[in-house]
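U., I forgot to send this yesterday:
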Amino acid sequence: MAPVLRYLPAARLAGVVGTSRERSLRSYRLFAARDPRVLIGIDPQGSWGERELLALMAERCGVSADPRHTSGQDVIDPRRTLAALDAFAGRLGAAARRGAPVLLGTGHPRPLLGFYAALADALSAAGCEVLTPAQGRCIDILTRFGLRTHRIDYVRRVALVRETEVGRPGCEPGAHCHSPLPVRVALEAAAAGPGPLPELVVGDHGWVCGAGQLGFEAIGLADTDDPAPFVGQAEGAVRVVVPLDDGARSSHYRPLTRYVLKRACLSQ
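Result:
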């Protein structure tokens, strides 16, 4: 058994994860109702009801396909995570070999910034231009607190958003954000600027869904309560989605960083 296959359930990045079954099922209900908070940039072409979504998530993540299973912690099959990590690394390696311009962004900066930043460093070292379009641009995003103004920022060349209101919780190192608006603004700025458009977008939440829906090659990470990237993958909008717990400690992702970079033939 590969060491990473043992590590994933030990760190609870796969196997029994921190995401509850109730939370996942609620997301499937909201997606079936076409709630934009859960669509996060994906415009579904198919008729995705709750049963179809549950079947898809069972296939792609390994969650229970039994609709009568309504409580407890959700489960991700580590073998599915490992296979998706290999595919994810394959796309990174392909981008590195051709020196493609790339854009990285996260709506989960606290746990995942380090993971993406290491990828940005390795891709840059391989000759890829890591893009930072729309730096400092302000956009209004609907949150649970209402409409809030956010600023696009880059930390170690990874895009994230910060609330502009000083002192609000979660402003550092960036806000938890599902919206596809930041990546849309970033891609519009890239298109209007003198530099290139990204040939690969790497991220999560709205970054991967929003970019994929606009026709960019997009790869990323997603938890069991985020069906949109998996629907995007099933319909061809998103290239690769890695199923894992996206809210663990940032240090828990370091072995995955090393694994991905090694599989992509990139040095950290």
